[in-house]
Amino acid sequence: MTYIVNDACIACKYTDCVEVCPVDCFYEGENMLVIHPDECIDCGVCEPECPADAIRPDTEPDMEKWVEFNRKYSEMWPVIITKKDPLPDAEARDGETGKLEKYFSEAPGEGG
Questions:
Q1: In 10 A of CB 94, how many CB atoms?
Q2: This prediction's pTM
Q3: CB-based contacts of 57-65 (< 8 A; 24+ apart in sequence)
Q4: How far is CA 6 from CA 30, 66, in A?
Q5: For 58-87, what is each residue's pLDDT tens digit?
Q6: CB 15 within 8 A of CB 83
Q7: What is the third-level CATH fold of 3-85?
Q8: Which of 10, 62, 71, 89 has the fewest CB within 10 Å, making it most exposed?
């Protein structure tokens, strides 16, 4: 099992999760985070830290696409281990549907 970040993170990018991760397996894109599925040790401490409920176990239905999505971008984006402010519209975008199609950016974040 591993944990993944889904589209609920897009346009919010809360980073509460990165501070509790014992193996630093979060990677930062311009407007979301992902988890490297091969680095995640399945401890689960990140899941309750996410205000947007964007972190889910891969054992839930239809998670295969998110495992591959997280793998792809974790290999392209820099690691993030330090909590940062969420994106300016995070509260307004929290819970919005269709964020992958509307807002997703492949651009890397700053990391750090």
A1: 18
A2: 0.96
A3: 57/1, 57/2, 57/3, 57/4, 58/1, 58/2, 58/3, 58/4, 59/1, 63/4
A4: 15, 6
A5: 999 999 999 999 999 999 999 999 999 999
A6: yes
A7: Alpha-Beta Plaits (3.30.70)
A8: 62
Rounded mean pLDDT, 84-111 = 97
CA geometry: angle at 12 spanning 8 and 59, to 5°? Answer: 25
Amino acid at 14: Y
Compute the CA torsion angle 36, 49, 89, 62 (nearest 10 deg). Answer: 50
C-alpha torsion sign, points 9, 10, 14, 20:
positive
**Secondary structure (DSSP) of the chain:** --EEE-GGGTTT---HHHHH-TT--EEEBSS-EEE-TTT-----SSGGG-TT--EEETTSTT-HHHHHHHHHHHTTS-B--S--PPPTTHHHHTT-S-HHHHH---SB----
